[in-house]
Amino acid sequence: MKTNPLSRPLAGREDPAPQPDPRRDREPAEEEEE
Fold it and tell me: How confident is the prediction along the chain (34 residues), in pLDDT tens digits per residue?
């Protein structure tokens, strides 16, 4: 695992990628409620 430093950042990027997706859906939803 120490020799695969690229594998660490790659997996971390996939985690935060799907997280912001649902956040964008909440932003427009809040505006509609207003």
Answer: 566 666 566 555 555 555 555 556 666 555 555 5
Looking at residue 5, its amino acid is P
The CA–CA distances, whole Å, from 19 to 2, 22, 27, 33 equal 27, 6, 13, 22
- Helix (H) / strand (E) element for 15: namely none
Q: Where are the alpha helices (DSSP H) in the chain?
A: 7-14, 20-33
Give dist(CA 11, CA 3) in Å, integer.
15
With contact defined as beta carbons under 8 Å apart, do 9 and 15 qualify? Answer: no
